[in-house]
């Protein structure tokens, strides 16, 4: 068999772009997108993406260029997941919750050539671009006008701001060529998306994924979650968050219906579930908590599947969510994995267990998915697998098709995350249970997960240290019933102050320098920080103290 080798017929580069072409062929007359009063079919969405890609190409956007978009879950945001890579460009979705300084840094770091801007985010982008050095060329801007945004009197009208843009989204769609021949990747390893990890400012971590990785993780997620053809998917998960865990491509693969909403509203969610017979939705545990606490949380007429990830969900929240008729699947992934790579695959015999025990089992992250070659928990000292006893702690490592190509312009960071023996080190700490199911116990690098968004405590500490009254600062996670976790700041003040700041003053100080979700919700003043013999602050002591405070109050932020 030595004469049998790969040929062009069997080694064509894998890419998720073809999913929409297939959807248009099979499900052409079926509904693809629902957004307020707007509805498209799959044949219309396919045509719109081709026309948009044609117009993007007319601006000189070429293979390898970065195209950014800052928008909520609207049809435009969905279509750009196909139209941008159709011209060989790399899609960069920007987190709406970031501040102008951070966005400016990310745009400069990515060298974005073109930005699609939702009408509600215009001021944010204008301010971010104003921070560019005078000698640096600014990216072109395209306005995504939206009737829903126009209804907000606090936002600028299309007429008042259109001179800042080279074009409008719908005009680009209208004049584009529906026969546009989209540009296929030269290799399935070609980049398709660039995502920045949350909270990156001074040192951006731009995660790059290839066509092959997105192709496999999208199909793997559908298979593991059991998403059938023509499901109805409600976009409660932001598409800017890791490309919506790769479900924009996945829903096209099954010819499903995308129900889009601009922002999360529990009352609207329950209304849309009933009106459109929603079958699936995703979200961090904070979404589950919001749904269960809504006054409109009447039991569902039919089961709705929820995939939750982003933070370990408390068993009590899982129990309350399923009591309403939701069927919860718990998964694990990170920006560097392009979606869910570990899932708490359910065993039929567990159905016989009491509900609280089922919730406890479901709170575990689970086992590797099919396109993931291996998952393990390694002892940080020996780099050997820890005992499968549910108690021995180590770092979670993975290897699989959807692991990132690496970090943009950061060879040292890439090398640090990728071991020579083929592991990607996630930075998360966990245990392996006797049955082979993994469970996260803590997070290395002091990452805090608030509302499904990762934020670095170091970033918050750097701002606190800018305050002239602060001597030392350390930030850890405090449990929060609403957000899962929120930043808790421990501060020691400088000696000789004529007046000591209040907790509220420290919080207000941070609000002016950080994205809202990164602002500490709790500030505790310390006379002396707990330290090691070498002078390092003992964060594990502070984490225990923050945990002992109980869940943070809901009054702030």
UniProtKB/TrEMBL annotation:
Similarity comment: Belongs to the ATP-dependent AMP-binding enzyme family.
Transmembrane region(s): none
Domain AMP-dependent synthetase/ligase: 21-408
UniProt key word Ligase: yes
Species for this entry: Cucumis melo
Record keywords: ATP-binding, Ligase, Nucleotide-binding
AMP-binding enzyme C-terminal domain location: 459-536
Domain of life the protein comes from: Eukaryota
Protein name: 2-methylpropanoate--CoA ligase CCL4-like
